[in-house]
Amino acid sequence: MARKEQKNTTVGFISLGCPKNTVDSERMLAQIAQAGLLITSEPDNADVVVINTCGFIAPAKAESIEVIRHFAQRKRRGAVKKVIVAGCLGQRLGEKLFLEVEGIDAVIGLDKRDSIVRIIRKTLSSAGSASYVDRAAKTHGDIIPDDRARLLITPGHWAYLRISEGCDHRCSFCTIPSIRGRFRSKPQELVLAEARELASAGVVELNLIGQDTSHYGRDLKAGAGLSGLLRELEKIDGPAWIRLMYLYPAGIDEELIETVAGGEKVVHYLDIPIQHINNRVLKAMRRSDTREQIQRLIETLRRSVPDVALRTTLIVGFPGESDREFAELVGFIRWAQFDALGCFEYCREAGTGAAQMPDQIPDAVKRQRLEELMLAQQEIAFAKNKKRVGSELKCLVDSADINNGKGRFYGQAPEIDSICIIEKCSAKAGQLIKTKVVGTRGYDLLVEQV
Question: Residue 343: inside a domain, yes or no?
Answer without folding.
Answer: yes
